[in-house]
Amino acid sequence: MKKIIIFGILIVSGFCLSGQTNSDSIQIKKKLGPVFQQNGRNLTPLQLSNITKSNSEAAKEMKIAKDNYIAGSVFQYVGGSFIGYPIGIFLGGGKPNWALTGIGAGLAVISIPFTVAYIKHAKNAVLIYNKGLKYSSMIKIDLKMTMTNNGVGLKITF
């Protein structure tokens, strides 16, 4: 009876250990732009940066991506404001400063290379992080029923 209980515990623990390796990986979903997900949850750049801290190479790449994200966001928000303000004045019946709209459009265009660089470096960081998970994951345990000198036995391979 003792052997059956020990055998059952080993099988159950083997299934639990092998189930933990895939949940930590980050998936890249293609939508309008790439969406980074872990366990079905969308990740912000800050969350992505925090997750990749455990892998030094991925963290370096993500730092570059995060810097590009911040710079691109600043240009996007300022450019959008410069575009939206004169349009709001025009829709309200006032006389807008169209030069401000042109400056805003220029700032919005400047943000594009930063956004492209963010995507490139973030994807690279995720690939490095996921590749590192394969090597640093738990040891796989293989359980097999085999014939031994004493009869039927359980062979555990690490």
Write the layout of secondary structure elements.
Layout lengths: L1 H17 L8 E4 L3 E5 L2 E2 L2 H7 L4 H36 L6 H39 L5 E7 L2 E7 L1
Antiparallel strand pairs: 1-2, 2-3, 4-5
Helix pairs in contact: 2-3, 3-4
Please explain how this structure is put together.
This protein has 158 residues and is an alpha+beta fold. It has one domain (25-157). Helices cover 63% and strands 16% of the residues. The protein has helices spanning 2-18, 45-51, 56-91, 98-136, and strands at 27-30, 34-38, 41-42, 142-148, 151-157. Strands 1-2-3 form a three-stranded antiparallel β-sheet, covered by helices on one side. Helix 2 (45-51) runs antiparallel to helix 3 (56-91) and helix 3 (56-91) packs antiparallel against helix 4. The longest helix is centred in the C-terminal third of the chain and has 39 residues, at 98-136. The chain is rod-shaped. The model is unreliable at 17-22 (pLDDT under 50).
